[in-house]
C-alpha cells in the first residue's frame, strides 16, 4: 500500500520578537486561506514514490501580511502566480488515484480544518465544485497522537513538528514552513519512529 504525507501553509499574521514568530491570533482562522501545499507519496516501507509542491493563490484575502511572507519565505508575486486551490488539491487527488493512496497523514488537525473552511468559502462565494478538496480531506489521518506516543510525550505539552525533529535529531534540510519541506519532515519523523501504517 501507498500513503501520503501532507503539509499545508496558510495565510497568517502576528509579530516577531527576537527572531521568534508569534501567531497572536490577530488573523482569525476564518480569514485564512491556503497559500501552498506539499505532498509526498510513500509505500509502507517508507520508499518515496513521488512528491508534489504548488503555491496557491488566495482568492478572498489575497494580500499576504509581512509576517506571513517572512514566516513562509513566500513573496506576494509567488502566491499571485499560484494555482487555484481546487486545482492544486486536484493534483494531489490525481496522485492519490495514480498511487492508490487511501490515507494521507498530517501532523495535527489544522490541515483538515483549513480544507473544510476552504470548501465552505468557495462553495458559498464562488459556487465552485470542490469535490477535489472533499476527496483529499476525507483521506486525512492525524498521526500526531501516534508520534507523541512514539517519542514519549504525555500530558498537555504538545511540541510542534520542528521540536519533534530536533528531539529525534533528524537532519534539517530545506526551509521551515515550506509546505514540501515540512511534509518531508513529517515523513522522516514517521519513518524514524516507525509509525505503523494503517492497513485494512
Domain unit count: 1
> Which structural class do you get from the secondary structure elements?
alpha/beta
What's the alpha carbon Rg, rounded to whole Å? Answer: 16 Å
Q: Which descriptor suits the 3D outline?
A: globular
Query: Which second-level CATH architecture applies?
Result: 2-Layer Sandwich
**Beta-strand content estimate:** 15-25%
User: What's the level 1 CATH class?
Assistant: Alpha Beta
Q: Within the largest sheet, what's the order of strands?
A: 5-4-1-6-7
Topology order in helix (H) and strand (E) letters: EEEEEHHHEHHEHHH
What is the overall pLDDT average?
93
CATH superfamily: Ribonuclease H-like superfamily/Ribonuclease H
- Give the count of helical stretches: 8
Q: What labels would you give this structure?
A:
alpha/beta; two-stranded antiparallel sheet; Nucleotidyltransferase, domain 5; single chain; 200 residues; 8 helices; globular; 5-stranded mixed β-sheet
